[in-house]
Amino acid sequence: MLSRRDFIKGSAVAMMTLAANIFPADVQAATCKAKTMQGTYRGFIDKRGIQTWLGIPYAKPPIGALRWHAPEPLEPSNKTFDAKKFGYSAIQDEDKTEPASLLEQSEDCLTLNIWTRGVKNLPVMVFIHGGGFINGGTGDPLYNGSNLAAHDVVVVTINYRLNLFGFMNFAAIDSAFEDTGYLGIKDQVAALTWVKENISSFGGDPDNVTIFGESAGAISATLLMVTPAAKGLFNKVIAQSGHMAYYHVPEHSAERTAKFMELGGYKNMQELMTKPTAELLLTYYKFCDELGFEIDVGFFPTCDGKYLPAHPLRELKDGAARGIKLLTGNTAEEYRYWALYYEGFMELMADAHPKLTPVIYEGEFLSEPELYQSWQKNHSELEELERYLEFANQLDWRVGQELMAEYQSAFDDVYFYLFNQESPYEHLGSCHAIDLPFVFGNPSEDIEPNPSPALIAQVQAAWVSFAKSGKPRADWKSYTIDERETMEINSKAWTCHRDLNSDNLRELRHVYENYLLD
What we know:
Elements: H1 4-7, H2 12-22, E1 30-36, E2 39-45, E3 51-57, E4 80-82, E5 111-116, E6 122-128, H3 146-149, E7 154-158, H4 163-166, H5 183-198, E8 204-214, H6 216-225, E9 236-240, H7 250-264, H8 269-274, H9 277-291, H10 312-317, E10 325-331, H11 345-352, H12 368-378, H13 384-408, E11 414-419, H14 436-440, H15 453-469, E12 486-489, E13 494-497, H16 502-516
Parallel strand pairs: 2-4, 6-7, 6-8, 8-9, 9-10, 10-11, 11-12
Antiparallel strand pairs: 1-2, 2-3, 3-5, 5-7, 12-13
Helix pairs in contact: 7-9, 11-13, 13-16
């Protein structure tokens, strides 16, 4: 079996080529400036008139004594800084399907990027990248915000700490590090705070901010909906293929940390604080190999009831996100994305899935066999592995997002979708992340090298309309518990369905809800 880490390594040549092609010199036609409390930043204007600032710090570098501590605000400054290239990617493994990982990396990674046409008082869209909380970054060309910004929004993309630097829970090792299980979420709050304080200098409206994210970015965005420290920093959320039931409980993440300490032979946090990044990475690689397929859920945020609510869905149901509009949904065949990483992934999924369900994979979701037996009866036409893959897609992705939609619809407008545009690569189908090339209007060699211009225009119009007014399209009905309206999205047509696929989901919803709210 191939692991993520063994899948493919980026060479130094590949890193230099990628960096050179993100923004060729000939598109940087002129310069632009913006003054903030932390300094004046000098960006560039491309030939289409999109103003761009890259690599702006939003917090002090989390290095030295600040390693594994909450992000600290920058000091005021009157200096002028160049902002024409991306900041460092967060420390991570190199992975061909995560192009940002092939760029230069550092623990000093807390930066953001901004694109705008230069019009004043525009809605702001802040993107949180995915990558399972272990990979990814804003340097990925897929996340270039210039095409989206052309629709008169200010687009912001943010980096945050990942894997052992952003989400490994060291609280049980040393109480002085009690927030380590969710430092990456604290980084995101710091970035949103910077946006609130400074985005007007870039033409953005600080009172009209939408956060949007995919996968780990969507999990982050939905957790931020119920995080007290994020209150007032945004008023709309777009969550693509991710929901707030994906998290660790403290006891489980502490067990993972104990394994990491054992593998490295580390005794305490004082020792860890002095270790060079390269040495820590070697232990991290061993840790990844130990987890195997489970590494994809190994660094979910720890919900300890202190900074992040211990029961996020319960908080949502009780109205903790009152006043936040939500647009959420998933792709039709989420798990097919993992075919990029694993040979025989369907067989692997059938074997490993009980360990991979949301918070549920803590080992207590004992009703899954009974659920699957019921599912089999309604899907006898499918081959066994296809049947189980469809079951996993619904249980892990669709049901959690439907519950979020149901709960939040009691307090504000919610819009739900199913994105079933297929990848040109037949084995991927409507896989996880297939929606991203259409949201940003950029190709992805791995899943969609030639996204349909017409569907790009439709998706961007809907996402931008939601960011501007809170409604994506005139024909898109808001989600209610009685009707469960779902917009089916593909290049053939956009169709709003009542209770789409309800017969397959009702029992899953019921059991899932009872478990998570128990």
